[in-house]
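Why should sequence recovery work at all? Because a backbone constrains its sequence more than one might expect. Tight turns favour small or flexible residues, buried strands favour hydrophobic ones, and helices have their own preferences. The token representation captures these environments compactly. In the example below, the structure is given first.
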């Protein structure tokens, strides 16, 4: 058999051997990779954090802080920075006072001091007066950007203070409560003390013994409401006191101002009856005065004289 005739046979034999060898290598590589995957355990996030082999990727802070550095002429000076820091501290102190004073409402009586301190530092920031180095912080802290965060924060707390009518209960210098507020709170405390004294026993005794003190605080509240000298704290305290008196203790007392109302209403109810009755009597008197005997007799005499003359 010559080599030329057997060359196709050798070519196919060589291709088959190469394919078989490369197939074994590929299968061995895949098998080894599969074995490695099977051996590798699945770790939870907590286990990965505690594992010595686990190293989280840490982003250097230097790359994030580079953009916070600007030229000195664009940054606020040290004096304005200190004012901003004090404003933040006092704002946090005021908010920390407001949250516990939400119920029952005591946002004016408990937090007026912290609000006065916050208002004082804001007035320093917004003032036209120059600070050290002839520097005013109003433009740099209040108007330097579209957000105007310091201005918005102050506007929010000022709106809350205004809607609570706290100025009616607090002195203008934020040094204490007004005289009307102190007197009302003293009268209210007397009423609540009476409630605590008799609430364990029969509520009938409570209604009887606490009637005068409750009446006093109720009348005082009415005068303050008329004169517009009360804040949200007094309003909420009186509402809770009235709820205790009427709903919890089931007490009541007739209000004196209802007596004139009943009298006037009764008079207006009987006024039409009186009017029609008086009109009827007056018309009967007029009917009786229409006919007089003397006048009828004189008319007859006049007729007789006329007949004789004719």
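From this structural description, the recovered sequence reads:
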């Amino acid at each position: 058999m010559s080599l030329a005739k057997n060359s196709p046979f050798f070519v196919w034999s060589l291709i088959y051997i190469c394919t078989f060898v490369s197939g074994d290598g590929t299968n061995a590589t895949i098998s080894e990779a599969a074995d490695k995957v099977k051996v590798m355990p699945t770790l939870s996030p907590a286990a990965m954090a505690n594992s010595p082999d686990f190293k989280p990727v840490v982003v250097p802070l230097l790359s994030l802080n580079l953009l916070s550095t600007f030229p000195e002429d664009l940054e606020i000076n040290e004096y304005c920075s200190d004012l901003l820091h004090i404003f933040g501290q006092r704002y946090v102190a005021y908010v920390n006072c407001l949250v516990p004073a939400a119920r029952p409402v005591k946002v004016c009586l408990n937090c007026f001091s912290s609000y006065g301190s916050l208002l004082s530092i804001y007035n320093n920031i917004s003032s036209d007066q120059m600070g050290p180095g002839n520097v005013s912080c109003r433009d740099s802290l209040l108007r330097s950007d579209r957000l105007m965060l310091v201005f918005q924060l102050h506007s929010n707390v000022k709106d809350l203070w205004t809607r609570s009518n706290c100025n009616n209960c607090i002195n203008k210098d934020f040094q204490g409560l007004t005289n009307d507020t102190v007197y009302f709170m003293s009268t209210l405390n007397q009423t609540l003390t009476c409630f605590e004294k008799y609430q364990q026993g029969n509520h009938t005794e409570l209604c009887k013994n606490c009637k005068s003190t409750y009446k006093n605080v109720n009348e005082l509240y009415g005068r303050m409401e008329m004169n517009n000298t009360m804040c949200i704290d007094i309003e909420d305290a009186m509402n809770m006191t009235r709820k205790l008196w009427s709903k919890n203790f089931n007490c009541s007392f007739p209000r004196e101002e209802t007596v004139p109302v009943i009298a006037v209403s009764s008079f207006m109810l009987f006024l039409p009856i009186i009017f029609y009755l008086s009109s009827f009597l007056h018309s009967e008197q007029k009917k009786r005065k229409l006919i007089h005997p003397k006048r009828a007799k004189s008319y007859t005499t006049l007729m007789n004289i006329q007949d004789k003359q004719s």
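A few observations help interpret the result. The CA atoms of residues 25 and 31 lie 10 Å apart.
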